[in-house]
Amino acid sequence: MQGKVTLEDHFAIEATLGDSQPFGPHVWPELRHRLLDFQDQRLRLMDASGVEIMVASLNAPAIQAIADPRQAAEVARRANDILAAEVAKRPDRFAGVAALPMQDSQAATQELERCIKELGFRGALVNGYSQTNDASRVLHYDLPQYRPFWRAVESLDVPFYLHPRPPSVRSPLYEDHSWLIGPTWTFAAETSVHALRLIGTGLFDEHPRLQIILGHLGEGLPYYLWRIDNRNNWMKAPHKYGARNPVASYFRANFHITTSGHFSTPALIDAVVEIGVERVMFSVDYPFEDFSDAADWFDHAQISESDRRKIGRTNAMKLFKLPGA
After folding, report:
1. Domains in the chain: boundaries
2. Percentage helix, strand, coil, to 5, in the chain?
3. % of the chain residues with pLDDT over 90
4. Do residues 181 and 235 make contact, with C-beta atoms less than 8 angstroms apart?
5. Average pLDDT of 30-45?
6. CB within 8 Å of 79: residues ≥ 6 apart
7. Is 4 helix (H, G, I), strand (E, B) or coil?
8. Average pLDDT for residues 92-116, to the nearest whole number?
9. How sure is the predictor about 166, in pLDDT bands with cuts at 50, 70 and 90?
10. Which of these CATH numbers, 3.10.530.10, 3.20.20.140, 3.40.630.30, 3.40.50.300, describes 4-319?
């Protein structure tokens, strides 16, 4: 399929580059090049895979791993300015989403507003919880101090991508099983719980127009919605949380998912059945996944051509309000 849009694909600046090295030390020269390059190899790989537009975002954990709020804000601003300059060179091929210093909700709000109103960005991508100067404390965004931030996101009418990072505390459950850390399992575990926390606090009752994106076909949540809402149903013991409605109702109204790094046709079909084709979008997870792997799979997946077009292009064009949508 030609004209695809991809929207969980990363770049790095020198200040954040080292954060990605642990994910590919054996291929670091190539991975490093791919993270820093914008206008050469990245475009050639997009062309070869039928990708017209990339919505680019900073690598992980990047800003969220910087404990000092002032430094986090400074690096976020620098990264966003660099991304804006690259997008300006090829606005027909690239769009940007903001990196945000969520350590300080007011600073994050101000940077989001600058990125949307001045830099022309199309939303934000944040890499999970944020570090603080207290090593024993991290910040998840269901906390009360983030309500003004979410109000601003809703007012700006832009999507917010909740991207993974490893859990803040290594559970003994993973002892001697380091292979489970990262994309294999803990990314999804951490991010899905974070998303459920947002739902459980009643955030989407207060801000019903918020739109959250999860990668990797929803971090497992689409396939668990029934279980979350209906566990031991005969006992008539409803969830004791702040939200007014079942989890699935919010997931189908306030969440979108992408195929980033999860190229499974059965999983894709199940996600479409669970939440609707209009809420599923193609993505690669470049440079940690390869364009050709993602495109070859998606272009030949056994889905209808109408659904392929929606997932591959039109859903993202509409959500991000890209030119020509």
Report:
1. 4-319
2. 50, 10, 35
3. 92
4. no
5. 97
6. 13, 15, 16, 58, 62, 63, 99
7. strand
8. 98
9. confident
10. 3.20.20.140
Cite the active site residues. Answer: 285
pLDDT digits (tens, 9 = 90+) for 13-34: 999 999 999 988 999 999 999 9
Which of the 8 DSSP states describes residue 60?
A: S
CB atoms inside a 10 Å sphere around CB 166: 17
Q: How far apart are CA 241 and CA 255, in angstroms?
A: 19
Residue type (1 letter), 314: T
Answer yes or no: are the C-beta atoms of 48 and 84 closer than 8 Å.
Answer: no
- Rounded distance between C-alpha atoms, residue 183 and residue 226, angstroms: 24
DSSP labels, 115-163: HHHTS----EEE-SSEE-SSTT-EE-TTSGGGHHHHHHHHHHT--EEE-
Q: Euclidean distance between the first and final Cα of the chain, in Å?
A: 17
d(CA 253, CA 237): 24
Tell me if 258 sits within 8 A of 282, measured CB to CB.
yes
Cα separation of 236 and 282, whole Å?
A: 39
Place of tokens 């989407």: 204
- Residues 12-16: contacts with CB under 8 Å, at least 24 apart: 12/36, 12/58, 12/59, 12/62, 13/58, 13/75, 13/78, 13/79, 13/82, 15/75, 15/78, 15/79, 16/58, 16/59, 16/62, 16/63, 16/75, 16/79
Residue 168: Cβ-neighbour burial (10 angstroms; 0-12, 13-18, 19+): middle
Helix (H, G, I), strand (E, B) or coil at 238: coil
Picking from 282, 273, 274, 278, the residue whose alpha carbon sits closest to that of residue 318 is 278
Query: Nearest CA to 263 among 305, 215, 221?
Result: 215
CA 122 remoteness from chain centre: 13
CA 162/CA 205 separation, integer angstroms: 19
